[in-house]
Every structure is written in C-alpha cells, then in structure tokens.
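User: tokens in, sequence out, please.
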C-alpha cells in the first residue's frame, strides 16, 4: 500500500510574524514562530506550509529549512504584481507581531538524500525549495550541481550564499554582456542515468525540462510548479466509493471529487484546490484516475496508488478511495 508522506492539511498551528527582512529585489523573508516560542514540527528540504491570510486567502510557501531553527520557520515571498493578491498583501500589509494560522509542513517535493548525483534547476523564486536541497546535500557531502536562472543579481535570493560555491552556476537574464543563457537541454546534457533532477520554476521552464528529458528515467525527474495545470475537473460523470464508510457519491461532469465530498458533508484534507500543493492526495483502492495535478506525474501516482481529488477525474466508471 502506498504511504502518503504529506502532512494533514487540517493540522493548524498558530504562529506570530517575528521578523521581515530583505531577501532580494521584490522578495522578502518572513520569520514565523509560535507565540509561546515552543518547537515547531521538523521539516525536510522541499517541504512547504499553507499560510492562511486574514483576507481569506491560503497560500503555499516552501520552507527555507537552512534558515529555520527548532522554533522558527522562514519563508520567502516574491511580490507578484499580477498575482492573485496574497503576495501583495504580505508585502504591503503584514506587520511584525501579527498572528497567522499555518498548516503543518507537507512535502510533495521530497529530496532523495542518497542519490549518486543530483542536478538542481531553479528559476526565479523557484530557488526556495532548491536552495534548501542544495544546502542539505552539501552538508551530507553529496555530489550536487545547482543552476539558477534569475532576472538579475539583485533579484537573486541567496546570491551571496551561492556565489562562488562549487557546483553552482548563476545566470542573470538582464546582465549586459552576458552570453546567452544555457538552455535546460544544455543543463541536462551532463546528467547521467543515475542523476536525480529537481526543478522548480515558471511554467515555461518546467515545460522546457519536460520537452528535453529524452531517455532520462522519469522516476528521477522531480518538478514543483508555481501554478496548477489542471484542466476541466472531470469530463463525464462517475461514481466515487468511499472504502472506509461505504458511502457512494456521484461526481457530476465538470465537478471535482473534493467539492462533491464537501457538498455531502464529508471531511477531506485540501488546501490549494488547484493541484499544486499535495494536501488532498488520497489513496486509490480501485479504478483508474485521470490525473490532472501538477504535483506528481501519472507514473508517480500509479506507483503510490494515489490521486489528487481537488482536480483529477476518472477514466473508469467508479473510483474506490481510501476515505
Ligand atoms: S488541494 Fe492542493 S493539490 Fe489538491
């Protein structure tokens, strides 16, 4: 039986904003602690938390585990001028001393710390989970390369920490006189069939990676996206059976399993509702899901026998879920 590593999205932790510091142009670092200073749950590189904002938004942020302590988390937030409002609120309205609710850490982008070699690819604010992975692998003495594409040196988070480090290549798009940036294909050319590859960045970067993986084993390619790529939730109705309770529900065409459960008064973990956070990952006991999330590949889901119920549909008439 596949084991879900994600923490439960319904775990809630009250934290206080203890400090806001400059990270890079357009990016601030937020330090969070429990009001009583007691320890927070441990987290590994790639983990993220949900941050509940007082304006009713829930946003996911990677934990900067190299900057965390036993009692504090640090997240980086890039101000997205044309985003959906969460980052702007945090940049403009959040004040030290405010309290927030967060989820326990969840890790849908876990790092294999025992890989023979690792290639880390980051674009823009996608450096946050990648930086945590890099520091961890360096601490362990593993073979690791990091390539970070960014707009300019002033926009690069951790520029000082990364510059000149062995295995690190930094590329700044706007720098005059720079030769054209290496492509993802260039970056992949050095990867062996044993290299674990982690990529976090904008959609076009992830698409470029997926178009160039060639014969590299899919199981070694790990991607974290900023946005979901979910299409229509389900084309055609199907039935969901909940194995633990025996309840059967009909999911209507264009509806999600998650919303169908909520409408029936059934509790299920969720957060982003757009297939990027992994909170709603559910074990599939029978049936053939139509995977539409951006957290895992269909092959990975098949290995884990899971699906994301916030956005994925069904290829079979019935799905039996471990709920
Ligand atoms: S709720 Fe985030 S992936 Fe489903």
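Assistant: Sequence out:
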């Amino acid at each position: 039986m596949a084991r879900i590593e994600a923490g439960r999205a319904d775990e809630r932790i009250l934290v206080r904003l203890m400090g806001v510091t400059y990270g890079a142009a357009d990016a601030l670092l937020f330090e969070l602690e429990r009001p009583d200073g007691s320890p927070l749950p441990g987290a590994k590189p790639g983990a993220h938390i949900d941050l509940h904002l007082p304006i009713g938004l829930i946003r996911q942020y990677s934990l900067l585990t190299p900057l965390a302590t036993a009692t504090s988390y640090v997240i980086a937030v890039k101000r997205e001028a044309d985003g959906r409002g969460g980052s702007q609120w945090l940049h403009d309205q959040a004040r030290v001393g405010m309290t927030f609710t967060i989820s326990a850490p969840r890790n849908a982008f876990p790092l294999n710390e025992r890989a023979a070699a690792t290639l880390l690819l980051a674009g823009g604010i996608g450096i946050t989970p990648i930086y945590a992975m890099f520091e961890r692998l360096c601490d362990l003495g593993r073979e690791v390369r990091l390539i970070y594409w960014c707009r300019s040196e002033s926009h690069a988070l951790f520029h000082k920490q990364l510059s000149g480090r062995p295995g690190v290549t930094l590329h700044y798009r706007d720098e005059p006189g720079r030769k054209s940036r290496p492509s993802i294909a260039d970056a992949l050319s050095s990867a062996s069939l044993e290299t674990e590859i982690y990529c976090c960045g904008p959609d076009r970067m992830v698409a470029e990676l997926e178009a160039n993986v060639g014969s590299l084993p899919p199981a070694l390619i790990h991607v974290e996206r900023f946005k979901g790529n979910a299409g229509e939730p389900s084309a055609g109705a199907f039935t969901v059976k909940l194995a633990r309770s025996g309840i059967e529900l009909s999911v209507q065409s264009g509806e999600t399993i998650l919303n169908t459960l909520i409408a029936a008064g059934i509790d299920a973990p969720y957060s982003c509702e757009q297939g990027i956070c992994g909170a709603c990952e559910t074990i599939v006991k029978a049936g053939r899901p139509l995977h539409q999330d951006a957290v895992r590949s269909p092959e990975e889901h098949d290995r884990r026998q899971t699906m994301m119920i916030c956005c994925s549909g069904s290829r079979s008439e019935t799905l039996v879920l471990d709920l």
